[in-house]
Amino acid sequence: MNLKELYQEIILDHGKNPRNLRKIDNHNKDAKGHNPLCGDSVHVYLKLNENKKIEDISFEGGGCAISMASASIMTDLIKDKEEFEVKEIVNDFLEMIKEKDDLKNNILSDDEKTKLMCFSGVKQYPMRVKCATLSWHTLTSAINNSQEIVNTEKN
Fold this sequence. Notes:
Number of domains: 1
Strand order of the largest sheet: 3-2-1-4
CATH topology: Sufe protein. Chain: A
């Protein structure tokens, strides 16, 4: 199996069987996001403890396979991370998907980086970049306690 096939398999798996697709009952941060051009929508829920560590993360919503896979992978990778680590991972992912060729952080394992690199080919399709980044922008909004709905047409 070549790398492109592996990336497609990971996206399809997470798109069809998203992880953490539920609402956390005792969340203390949340945010909503919407991609009006594609119809993707996401609601991210966080349980952040007093030490600013993400104890739990989940999402609800619907959309294309890329949007759902991105939210699923994001929630898998972000759980149990410190807030400062999350911000670094988010920035690294957004830079990679828009302009850079690789991930630069040392927080994630090689396997975790591979999951994120699945989306590296999306930069060739600007409309799909919005699908892949919606949940990540929404996560940032939740961390920052922003009450505004994330809209991909404004990012």
